[in-house]
């Protein structure tokens, strides 16, 4: 037994040794990987980036940057490369001693130092590239600044007339940039690239603004000397023409406002001559706003007149029609009130409409009188156009509705009389059919229903003789009577159908009576129910009896009866 135990122990020892050897191999490979990474970062070509700076003047700021970047790189590389190498050596020793946990920590420490070197390389190369890019941009802006300076100088010399009194101030401003452009070169020669870039950036943008100002000045002068005075004249003469056509424009105060605008306009050229263009633009913006406001008010007057001219004939027609219809309604109401009951509110509405129409006509007459004056302020009266249109239209619609109601009174009266005659005829016809049917006796319910209908008819006939007639009440009474008649007719025909079908079912079943005792009993029961006026129940019993001896025959008999 101990032999097996010994063998198991030996196997465990061998397996453990194999696992330890495998782990040492894996950890060794990880250390080798880190050694390769350390070698790679030690070979990073930062010196090649620094070599690029030797193309520039390594004095002043440039020299300081060069030395700082070189020292920072060397210090980072030497310090963290040494830390990484020591950590890897310690990790290697730990692996040989099978201290895998400690080896992993040292390996990670080496990786952290390698990563610091890599990050520092990325940081410094980015700074170098940014410096080179800024220097190249500065060179480009310097070239552009010299071009803008030359073009501005040449433009003033060649086209000085278009700048007016601003020519001399412009020459002085441009001349002031001559030494400014040369300063950049001196800063670059001294290696002060950062200061040079800031300086040329500001100079370049100032020259761009100067170019924009030089482009704007001739436009401002043209606007001040020609365009705005021409607009002033056009507005002044245009308003005079409109006054001659009858427009009242006093509320716009064109002359006073134009006088003020002209005074403000006279302030612009001196500001342009002093190159105070922002203030000049502000004054011109205010002038344009004032002009737009005056043009808008004038246009509003013109549109108001057009609206008045366009709506005048329509309003005339609507008011005339409304007044004519109101007269017609008042005449009709006086006549119809003797014949029919009319809601007092409708009568009062018609009377009120007469006053409203007169009020609208008065407003419209005032508008016409206003337009017949020498001058008219159409914007003051144009709002009445919509008021008149809307109110005249509303009155027209409501008066039409009342007129339609008056017409309907006569039609409803005639319809009610016709309906009640028709109900009376139908009642007599149904009653005659009941009396001549095969019913044993006439059910009492039909006698009662017939009596109720006749009472209603007599009551309605009495109402027809009254003056004034309440048509709405009569219509409701006639409708109730029609519903009673419909019920009377439906139930009467249903009973007559049941009774006739019962006889047919019994007649059909008679052929089987002698041979079928059950059928005979059922038919006897149906006959008994028939004699007792229980026609619906008699039909059901007879149908069941016939179906029991010949399925489908009852439905066939019923279908043939309904089709005849």
Automatic annotation (TrEMBL):
InterPro entries per record: EzrA (IPR010379)
Coiled-coil region list: 107-134
Glycoprotein keyword on record: no
Predominant location category: membrane
Residues passing through the membrane, by range: 6-23
Biological process per Gene Ontology, one example term: division septum assembly
Cellular compartment(s): Cell membrane
CC terms in the record's Gene Ontology section: plasma membrane; septin ring
Top-level taxon: Bacteria
Membrane-topology descriptor: Single-pass membrane protein
Keyword tags: Cell cycle, Cell division, Coiled coil, Membrane, Septation, Transmembrane, Transmembrane helix
Protein name: Septation ring formation regulator
Species for this entry: Jeotgalicoccus coquinae
Gene that this sequence comes from: ezrA
């Amino acid at each position: 037994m101990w032999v097996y135990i010994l063998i198991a122990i030996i196997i465990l020892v061998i397996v453990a040794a194999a696992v330890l050897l495998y782990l040492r191999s894996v950890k060794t490979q990880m250390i080798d990987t880190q050694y390769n990474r350390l070698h790679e970062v030690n070979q990073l070509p930062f010196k090649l980036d620094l070599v690029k700076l030797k193309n520039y003047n390594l004095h002043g700021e440039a020299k300081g940057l060069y030395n700082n970047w070189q020292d920072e790189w060397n210090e980072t590389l030497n310090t963290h490369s040494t830390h990484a190498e020591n950590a890897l050596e310690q990790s290697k020793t730990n692996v040989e001693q099978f201290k895998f946990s400690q080896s992993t920590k040292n390996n990670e420490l080496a990786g952290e130092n390698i990563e610091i070197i890599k990050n520092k390389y990325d940081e410094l190369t980015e700074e170098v590239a940014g410096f080179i890019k800024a220097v190249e941009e500065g060179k480009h802006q310097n070239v552009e600044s010299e071009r803008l300076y030359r073009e501005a100088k040449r433009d003033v010399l060649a086209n000085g007339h278009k700048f007016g009194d601003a020519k001399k101030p412009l020459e002085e401003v441009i001349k002031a940039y001559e030494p400014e452009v040369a300063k950049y070169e001196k800063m670059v020669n001294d290696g002060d690239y950062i200061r040079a870039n800031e300086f040329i950036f500001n100079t370049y943008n100032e020259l761009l603004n100067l170019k924009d100002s030089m482009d704007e000045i001739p436009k401002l002068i043209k606007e001040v000397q020609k365009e705005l005075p021409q607009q002033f004249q056009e507005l002044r003469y245009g308003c005079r023409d409109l006054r001659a056509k009858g427009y009242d424009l006093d509320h716009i105060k064109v002359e006073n406002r134009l006088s003020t605008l002209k005074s403000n306009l006279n302030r612009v050229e001196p500001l342009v001559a002093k190159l105070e263009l922002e203030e000049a633009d502000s004054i011109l913006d205010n002038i344009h706003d004032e002009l737009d406001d005056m043009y808008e008010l004038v246009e509003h007057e013109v549109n108001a007149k057009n609206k008045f001219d366009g709506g005048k004939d329509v309003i005339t027609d609507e008011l005339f029609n409304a007044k004519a219809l109101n007269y017609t309604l008042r005449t009709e109401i006086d006549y119809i009130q003797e014949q029919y009951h009319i809601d007092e509110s409708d009568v009062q509405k018609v009377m009120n409409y007469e006053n409203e129409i007169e009020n609208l006509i008065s407003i419209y007459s005032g508008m016409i009188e206003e337009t017949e004056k020498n001058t008219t302020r159409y914007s003051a009266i144009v709002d009445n156009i919509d008021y008149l249109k809307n109110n005249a239209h509303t009155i027209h619609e409501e008066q039409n509705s009342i007129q339609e109601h008056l017409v309907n009174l006569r039609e409803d009266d005639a319809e009610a009389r016709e309906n009640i005659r028709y109900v009376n005829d139908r009642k007599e016809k149904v009653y005659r059919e009941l009396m001549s049917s095969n019913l044993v006796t006439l059910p009492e319910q039909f006698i009662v229903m017939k009596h109720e209908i006749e009472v209603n008819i007599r009551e309605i006939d009495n109402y027809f003789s009254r003056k004034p007639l309440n048509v709405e009440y009569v219509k409701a009474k006639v409708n109730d009577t029609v519903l009673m008649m419909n019920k009377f007719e439906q139930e009467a025909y249903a009973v007559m159908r049941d009774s006739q079908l019962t006889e047919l079912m019994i007649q059909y079943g008679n052929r089987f009576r002698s041979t079928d005792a059950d059928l005979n009993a059922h038919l006897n029961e149906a006959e008994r129910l028939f004699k007792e006026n229980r026609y619906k129940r008699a039909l059901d019993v007879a149908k069941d009896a016939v179906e029991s001896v010949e399925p489908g025959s009852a439905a066939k008999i019923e279908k043939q009866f309904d089709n005849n």
